[in-house]
From TrEMBL:
Reactions accelerated catalytically: an S-substituted L-cysteine + H2O = a thiol + pyruvate + NH4(+); L-kynurenine + 2-oxoglutarate = kynurenate + L-glutamate + H2O
Gene Ontology MF terms: cysteine-S-conjugate beta-lyase activity; kynurenine-oxoglutarate transaminase activity
Any one of the GO BP annotations: kynurenine metabolic process
Recorded metabolic or biological pathway in which this protein acts: Amino-acid degradation; L-kynurenine degradation; kynurenate from L-kynurenine: step 1/2
GO CC entries: mitochondrion
Cofactor annotation: pyridoxal 5'-phosphate
Gene3D superfamilies: Aspartate Aminotransferase, domain 1
Assigned protein family: Belongs to the class-I pyridoxal-phosphate-dependent aminotransferase family.
Protein name: Uncharacterized protein
Complexes and interactors: Homodimer.
Keywords carried by this UniProt record: Aminotransferase, Lyase, Pyridoxal phosphate, Transferase
UniProt lineage: Eukaryota, Metazoa, Chordata, Craniata, Vertebrata
SUPFAM superfamilies: PLP-dependent transferases
Amino acid sequence: MSLKFKNSKRIEGLDRNVWIEFTKLAADPSVVNLGQGLPDISPPSYVKEELSKVALIDSLNQYTRGFVSASGP
């Protein structure tokens, strides 16, 4: 005898979010996923210089919103 489960309406749409979209895109072997891993080379000096400037701006230190689709909010 098999049991049939019905998902709660609260989880509808959870299968559609930006991270799932990024994972699908990164699965392509021709894509280099820069969001994971530990690079073994230093970034160029200009990248480090610009990062140090941006790090001093107080309004730019927030996490991104979660569960936003790739097509918009």
